[in-house]
């Protein structure tokens, strides 16, 4: 693993794309169509006009959420694509997919597939999204869209030129507290002077949120950093790349993972507003919050709870409606955008400002890191 790059890490064994050699058809794991699909657990099936044929790529925790939601909304679970045959087969059987394979091209060649949901390692997103678009499929790709601004911009252009829906699965934008603040800023009720965001978690090992060992190394800047950076720019109303100054401070790369585990970004808009993003993979206490210092008030959003100086304004635990289910609202928006042939709410273009800021942080890191330097071992 190259110790001097944030994003160039040892890549996980990848799923075969559409250009893979045809001599290995993977017939054993492709499976036969199932006569009936069991109802996904946990949600009553909702009949949807013009239901979509869905292929899900990945079988982790995130893939399970999308599968349950889209299946529960009445969409057809056509293909499950996974890296390991046994796990792909087990996931497909559990959730009632018609077919499964380790080869993405099997799903892309199937006319019954309208859309693909990518829940794969971050370094694979751009390549797989490009393959899906080239095959004429709509795409819902988990954040990050790409691991560089150039890749993200290229995907945005491709989707636009082909007339296909390319949506980024960024559920944080659908959290009610954050949506409420964004709407108040857009209406002119709040004028931010600064926004401070913290995304702190413990990820010293290659273990995902589902508890299993990953075959790939996560990326603090391009994965979790994109969540918080995008949210700060979105709340500030920054809609185009290149509209903020970026100052980045990175710790030296971890000796085992080869990436910096602590990063701080300062973003400055043309209106002299500041966005501060603090992120860490060392925190034994998970922290995900935003503090908005506005001319009119100061607001704090912590774990979805919105409060001001007088108390709690919104608590998702007290909300019995579907409004609090950011995953459900996000996936419904994707399906609606596909059916209505319109750009989705979280389009590839809409995340380019964040990708641009992260690219400049990456470039600064690449230019300043002393050869061979690593973070001290304190444990």
TrEMBL record:
Biased composition (Basic residues): 34-47
Segments of this protein annotated with the region Disordered: 1-47
Record's keyword terms, sorted: Oxidoreductase
Keyword Ribosomal protein set for record: no
InterPro entries tied to this protein: Gfo/Idh/MocA-like_OxRdtase_N, Gfo/Idh/MocA_oxidrdct_glycsds, LigC_C, NAD(P)-bd_dom_sf
MF terms in GO: nucleotide binding; oxidoreductase activity
Record-annotated 4-carboxy-2-hydroxymuconate-6-semialdehyde dehydrogenase-like C-terminal domain positions: 177-302
Protein name: Gfo/Idh/MocA family oxidoreductase
Residue intervals of the Gfo/Idh/MocA-like oxidoreductase N-terminal domain: 53-170
């Amino acid at each position: 693993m190259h110790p001097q790059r944030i994003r160039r890490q040892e890549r996980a064994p990848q799923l075969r794309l559409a250009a893979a050699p045809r001599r290995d058809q993977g017939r054993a794991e492709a499976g036969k169509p199932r006569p009936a699909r069991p109802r996904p657990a946990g949600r009553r099936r909702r009949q949807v006009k013009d239901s979509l044929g869905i292929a899900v790529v990945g079988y982790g925790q995130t893939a399970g959420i999308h599968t349950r939601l889209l299946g529960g909304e009445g969409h057809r679970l056509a293909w499950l694509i996974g890296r390991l045959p046994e796990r792909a087969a087990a996931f497909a059987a559990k959730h009632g997919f018609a077919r499964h394979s380790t080869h993405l091209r099997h799903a892309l060649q199937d006319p019954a597939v309208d859309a693909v949901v990518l829940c794969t390692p971050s370094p694979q997103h751009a390549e797989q999204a490009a393959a899906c678009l080239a095959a004429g499929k709509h795409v819902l790709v988990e954040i990050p869209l790409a691991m560089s601004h150039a890749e993200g911009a290229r995907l945005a252009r491709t989707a636009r030129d082909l007339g296909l829906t390319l949506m980024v699965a960024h559920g944080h934008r659908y959290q009610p507290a954050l949506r409420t603040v964004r709407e108040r800023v857009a209406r002119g009720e709040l004028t931010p002077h600064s926004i401070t965001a913290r995304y702190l978690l413990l990820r010293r090992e290659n273990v995902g949120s589902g508890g299993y060992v990953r075959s790939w190394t996560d990326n603090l800047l391009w994965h979790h950093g994109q969540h918080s950076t995008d949210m700060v720019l979105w709340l500030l109303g920054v809609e185009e790349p290149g509209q903020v100054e970026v100052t980045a401070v990175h710790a030296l790369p971890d000796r085992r993972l080869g990436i910096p585990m602590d990063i701080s970004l300062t973003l400055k808009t043309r209106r002299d507003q500041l966005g501060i993003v603090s992120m860490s993979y060392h925190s034994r206490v998970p922290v995900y919050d935003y503090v908005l210092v506005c001319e009119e008030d100061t607001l704090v959003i912590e774990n979805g709870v919105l409060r001001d100086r007088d108390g709690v304004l919104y608590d998702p635990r007290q909300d019995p409606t579907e409004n609090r289910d950011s995953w459900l609202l996000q996936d419904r928006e994707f399906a609606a955008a596909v059916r209505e042939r319109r750009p989705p709410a979280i389009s590839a273009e809409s995340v380019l400002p964040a990708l641009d800021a992260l690219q400049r942080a990456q470039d600064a890191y690449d230019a300043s890191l002393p050869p061979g330097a690593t973070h001290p071992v304190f444990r």
